[in-house]
């Protein structure tokens, strides 16, 4: 999953770094000074929307599933569901959960307060997954409290 998200480095590396030698500053005259992500909150960007679909607000949100790189999505394993159009947004929630799990939860020990939220995001029934607005509404209070 980490190939489809990027971090903007300017907050963590205020004077940036050299792209060929990330440990050095841009002019090779010293080490690149960096801060922690706690000291300077970092912006992350989701990229690579090549398989994405665009829906207008008044449009029906159903489409035939597009099989992307993540083959673990339950609705893709079920051939009956795969045969017809469905709401693609619960699949996006599943994908975001896998990104959070693989790039953060499996790498850092202090994020267990997110466990119940990310578990809901991969419910085997896509209609029982929270939508992204619900995920965001749950995320910020969790981050402030540090517990689920």
Structural notes for this entry:
With 148 residues, the chain is mostly helical. 30% of the residues lie in helices and 4% in strands. The relative contact order is 0.12.
Any key phrases for this structure?
148 residues, 5 helices, 30% helix, globular
> Main sheet, how many strands, which sense, barrel?
2 strands, antiparallel
Report mean pLDDT, rounded to a whole number: 85
Overall, the morphology is: globular
Distance from first to last alpha carbon: 24 Å
Q: Provide the helix percentage.
A: 25-40%
What would you report as the Rg, rounded to the nearest angstrom? 19 Å
Count of extended strands: 2
Give the uncertain stretches in residue-range form.
Answer: none
Strand/helix succession: EEHHHHH
Work out the helix count.
5
SSE topology:
Elements: E1 5-7, E2 44-46, H1 74-77, H2 79-82, H3 89-105, H4 115-120, H5 132-145
Antiparallel strand pairs: 1-2
Concise overview:
Helix content is 30%, strand content 4%. The chain is mainly alpha-helical and 148 residues long.
């Amino acid at each position: 999953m980490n190939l489809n998200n990027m971090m903007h480095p300017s907050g963590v590396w205020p004077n940036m770094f050299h792209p060929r030698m990330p440990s050095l500053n841009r002019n090779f005259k010293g080490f690149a000074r960096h801060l922690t992500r706690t000291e300077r909150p970092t912006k992350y960007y989701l990229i690579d929307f090549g398989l994405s679909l665009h829906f207008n607000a008044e449009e029906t949100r159903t489409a035939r599933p597009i099989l992307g790189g993540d083959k673990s999505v339950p609705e893709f394993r079920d051939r009956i569901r795969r045969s017809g159009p469905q709401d693609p947004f619960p699949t996006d929630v599943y994908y975001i959960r896998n990104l959070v799990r693989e790039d953060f939860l499996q790498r850092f020990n202090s994020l267990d307060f997110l466990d119940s939220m990310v578990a809901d995001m991969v419910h085997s029934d896509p209609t029982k997954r929270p939508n992204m607005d619900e995920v965001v509404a749950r995320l910020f209070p969790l981050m402030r409290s540090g517990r689920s």
